Amino acid sequence: MFLDLLIAIFFLFVGLEITSTLSHPKQIVLPTFAALGGMVVPAAIFLLLNPASPAWATTMPTDLALALGVFALLGKSANPAVRIFLLTLAVADDLFSLIVLAVFYGDKLDIAHSTSTLGAAAVGAALALIPRFPVSKIIDFLSPLCTFFVVPVYVISKLSQGISIASLTSSTTTSLITARVIGKIIGITLFAWFAVKIKLAYLPKDLRFSEIAGVGALAGMGLTVALVISEVAIDSEIIQGDVKAGLIISAVTSGLIGFFWLKRSLALK
């Protein structure tokens, strides 16, 4: 019950972020298209390495709170345009991942559980549409709450069981790490470049493709939504343990790569 409350708070935060971000239509095309690349390419890499595995969908989500938390470590000198791109990409990523969950695994969803979690996102979106509703103040409150309490408590409680030594070298784990750490960078950067190339979207003058690649690295951090998908999509406790191991390793690796990548980009400006 307590964990259900935590994940409902997280999805409330996601719902508010989605709607507030979508209020800037000119800013969403490029990161939204990039988010699709950050889903398709990792999933394709995972299935290429591990055909027919039910864990493929866990390669897709980006952990909004964790990614923004790592980005915040860059300090006040961080490029605001990169944060906007990361925020928009992450909320689009999570939204598309939830759609994938509903489409491919709808028959496995626990009605009560999905109502309390996904319903919270809908409530957040509805609140954001109410004129004069203090959305920004609620987001400012929920952002650190999710980053430093909700996500860590939820993730630690979910990751505390099911991981074995064998999980560290399983095909599911290694495929997931490869798909998330490498696939996210390639998919996000490639799709963003292609969208600009065909003039589907424009590249903001204060944003560089090297910074988009850094965002792609941070997008490899996926725990909260990926764990929700894992619980629904995977029946085997062994494979669930493998997924948890892969998510931990890829989150740490991607976070470090993304941080130092973007830090170096700041130094080169």
List keywords for this structure.
269 residues, Na+/H+ antiporter like fold, 10 helices
What features would you describe in this structure?
The protein is mainly alpha-helical. The protein has one domain: Na+/H+ antiporter like domain (Na+/H+ antiporter like fold, Up-down Bundle), CATH 1.20.1530. Helices cover 76% and strands 0% of the residues. Helix 2 (25-49) crosses helix 4 and helix 8 runs antiparallel to helix 10. The longest helix is centred in the last third of the chain and has 32 residues, at 237-268. The termini are far apart.
Q: Summarize this, please?
A:
This protein is mostly helical and 269 residues long. It is built from ten helices and no strands.
- Rg over CA atoms: 17 Å
CATH topology: Na+/H+ antiporter like fold
- Largest β-sheet summary: none
The count of DSSP E runs of length 2 or more, i.e. the number of strands, is 0
3D shape: globular
Q: What is the number of helices?
A: 10
- For the residues shown, what is the average pLDDT? 84
How many domains is the backbone divided into? Answer: 1
List the helices and strands and how they pair.
Layout: H1 2-22, H2 25-49, H3 64-72, H4 80-105, H5 111-129, H6 135-159, H7 171-197, H8 209-218, H9 224-233, H10 237-268
Helix pairs in contact: 1-4, 1-5, 1-6, 2-4, 2-7, 3-4, 3-6, 3-10, 4-9, 7-8, 7-10, 8-10, 9-10
